[in-house]
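My current task is to audit a protein record that another person submitted. Thanks in advance; the entry in question is below:
***
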Amino acid sequence: PDPPSSIGVPMLAGAGIRIPLRGPPGRTVTLEQSTNLRDWTPALRQWLMFPEEEIQVNLSDEPAIFFRTTP
């Protein structure tokens, strides 16, 4: 089986954050976000053309925001 998708080390980028998504090429990855680690909502879906791709997400006014991937 293919390895699971994952997130690399995020970096600040202006008013947003750049997040490296990792996974097998040809797979669609869903990036989810949460402010409390309990309730998760989809932030975006990305089809991976390469084993690692960088996406940019705008930051909200929340004091903390967490990200995870799902297949």
